[in-house]
Amino acid sequence: MPYNPSSLPSLKGAVFLVTGGNTGIGYHTAKHLALKGARVYIGSRSPKKGEDAVQKIKSEAAGVDIDIHVLHMDHMVLSSVVGAAAEFKSKETRLNGLVNNAGIMATAFQKSEIDGFEAQWQTNYLAHWLLTWHLLDTLASTGTSVTPARVVNVTSNGHNFAPKGGIDFHDLDQTKGGIWSRYGMSKLGNILHAKKLNQLFGPDGSNKEKAGIWSAAVHPGAIDTELNTQADVPGFVQSMLRCFGVYKTPDEGSFTSLFAVAGPEFEQRDSGGYFVPVAKRATPSAYAKDEKLSNELWDWTESEMRSRKLI
Question: Which UniProt keywords apply (predicted)?
Fold first, then answer.
């Protein structure tokens, strides 16, 4: 492979947060960071599954001293995400990298009970936007011009399934769409979010008070994880993909995220970019490159979160 996380330098003294770090790609992302000496927090909806993941990583570490912890957060309850950010900041004064990894894919229509948003939109996009917002000060105070803090949004080439217009502000639940347009819109949101973060806080960002934050949107590839078992698609389709060798392992799926969040090969010019396996810059959809749409989505999200007193 053109990139392997074994090339990561020592991360001793660095702090990272990986959402959905108890399973799949997130688990391996957290594990590689911890093996390089970083203090790692894994965001997990289930404290027990989070602790089980921590113990598994430690047992697989072959004598390496592992500094890894669970941060409870439920993306389907936005106040839980705010609480998790507050808990993190009560324990840490620095954050070198945030990997917004947790997600669901092509699930049957559902709305969050408390917040009332469609599940994929809230889990994949809104919760991560909100978490990032509440950690911006910590990221900015950690990052420098030499060693910027980084935010990595795990997206998908499924962003190409977004509805006409990219983000349908008149039908955010995608009642006129389906499982894939809902998924696509949420994943497009991840890319537009990374783009806007770079515009505001990146190398040439307009917000000079919170400079020193690089961002990226990462498509991990077709990975055989629990995400696929949750998808509302026939099981035989997944079996065929496995049979034909389309799927990669969750460990391989973590490589591009690790490149973007901690790799020295990720450079200033890469901030705000879209990356595909393995660690290759690529061109996303036209909607994903639309600066006007990026601004409109940010403004809508900020307004919505303020109206709910979540920021």
Answer: NADP, Oxidoreductase
Catalytic residue among 27, 183, 247, 274: 183
Structure tokens belonging to residue 110 = 């559902």
User: Is residue 6 one of the residues assigned to a domain?
Assistant: no
pTM over 0.90: yes
d(C-alpha 79, C-alpha 201), whole Å = 25
Distances (CA, A) of 165 to 190, 205, 293, 303: 16, 26, 9, 20
**Active-site annotation holds for 187:** yes
Phi and psi for 56 in degrees, rounded to 5?
Answer: -65, -45
The strand pairing partners of 280, in sequence order, are 276
Which domain CATH number covers 81? 3.40.50.720
How many structural domains is the chain composed of? 1
DSSP secondary-structure letter at 126?
I
How far, in Å, CA of 175 to CA of 152, rounded? Answer: 29
Sheet holding 67-72, edge to edge: 67-72, 39-44, 15-19, 97-100, 149-154, 213-218, 273-276, 280-282
Q: Which of 31, 187, 196, 248 is catalytic?
A: 187
CA dist 218 and 277 (Å) reads 8
The C-alpha atoms of residue 98 and residue 33 are separated, in whole angstroms, by 12
- pLDDT value for 234: 52
In a domain? residue 74 = yes
Give Cβ neighbours of residue 23 (< 8 Å, ≥ 6 apart).
49, 53, 225, 226
Q: What percent of the chain has pLDDT over 90?
A: 88
Residue 4 lies inside a defined structural domain of this protein: no
Backbone angles phi, psi at 98, to 5 degrees: -120, 125
Q: Mean pLDDT of all residues in the chain?
A: 93
Annotation says 183 is catalytic: yes
149 domain residue, yes or no = yes
53 token code pair: 């993941």
Chain centroid, CA 6 distance in Å? 21
